[in-house]
Specification:
Layout (H helix, E strand, L loop, with lengths): L7 H11 L9 H10 L2 H17 E3 L6 E3 L13 E8 L2 H10 L4 E5 L17 H7 L5 E4 L5 H14 L6 E4 L15 H9 L2 E2 L1
Parallel strand pairs: 3-4, 3-5, 5-6
Antiparallel strand pairs: 1-2, 6-7
Helix pairs in contact: 1-2, 4-7
Bound molecules: zinc ion.
Length: 201
C-alpha cells in the first residue's frame, strides 16, 4: 500500500499544492512538510495574510497593475510620470523589471498575458479593449512584450486595432533582446538599453 494513501488529509493537501503553478513537483513533499511543521499561530497568521492580500491587493482599473484597495495607483495617480507615454507589458513581473531598469518614466498597461489560442487565451482574456480605449489620449505607445511568437502575435493584433489613430507613435524594444526571452528574467542593463534605444514600429 502506498504511504500517502494511508494519509488521506495529507494527500488532499498535496493535491492542492499540485495546482499551484511554478511549484516544482519535486518540491511538493518539502513544502507540505514545511506547513506541517509550522506552529499553529504562525500558520494562522500566514492563512490570514493570504486572505487579506487576496482581498486588499487589486488591479488598477486603468493600467491593471496591482495596487492597494482604496489607494491611488502609484503609476496612474502620479504627477511625476509622463501620462503621454504608455508601455504595454504582458505581466506585472515584466513591469517590475522595467521599473528596476529605470529607463521608463511613463505609464503602463498590463495585458495579463499574450494571445495563445492553444491555451484558450484570446483577446477577451486580455485587457486589449481597455488599451485600445486608452490610446486616444496618449502620444506614444511602447510595446515591451516578450520576444516570443505569442508576444509578436499580440503586438501585431493590437497594432492592427489601433492603426487608424495615425497621430500615435508606436515603438517597440530595440533589437538585442534574446529571442524567446522574457523581460521578467532579463538583466537591468539589457532592459535599459532595449527601452532607451526603442525604435519605431
Ligand atoms: Zn494604474
Amino acid at each position: 500500500m502506498n504511504v500517502i494513501e494511508k494519509l488521506p488529509t495529507l494527500q488532499h493537501l498535496l493535491r492542492q499544492l499540485q495546482k499551484v503553478p511554478y511549484l516544482a513537483s519535486k518540491n511538493l513533499y518539502r513544502v507540505a512538510t514545511h506547513f506541517l511543521k509550522m506552529d499553529e499561530k504562525q500558520l494562522q497568521q500566514f492563512c490570514a495574510l493570504l486572505l487579506k492580500a487576496h482581498e486588499q491587493v487589486v488591479r488598477c482599473p486603468i493600467c491593471y497593475a496591482w495596487q492597494e484597495k482604496g489607494a491611488a495607483c502609484q503609476f496612474c495617480g502620479s504627477s511625476r510620470r509622463d501620462a503621454g507615454v504608455v508601455c504595454v507589458v504582458e505581466s506585472w513581473q515584466d513591469l517590475l523589471a522595467i521599473e528596476k531598469s529605470g529607463a521608463f518614466k511613463g505609464l503602463y498597461h498590463v495585458l495579463g498575458g499574450s494571445l495563445s489560442p492553444i491555451d484558450g487565451i484570446g483577446p477577451e482574456q486580455l485587457s486589449i479593449e481597455q488599451l485600445v480605449a486608452r490610446v486616444e489620449h496618449i502620444s506614444e505607445l511602447v510595446f515591451a512584450l516578450n520576444q516570443t511568437p505569442e508576444g509578436e502575435a499580440t503586438m501585431a493584433y493590437i497594432v492592427e486595432k489601433i492603426k487608424k489613430n495615425t497621430a500615435l507613435k508606436i515603438t517597440c524594444l530595440a533589437q538585442g533582446m534574446p529571442v524567446g526571452s522574457s523581460i521578467e528574467f532579463m538583466d537591468r542593463l539589457t532592459v535599459y538599453k532595449a527601452l532607451d534605444q526603442r525604435k519605431e514600429f
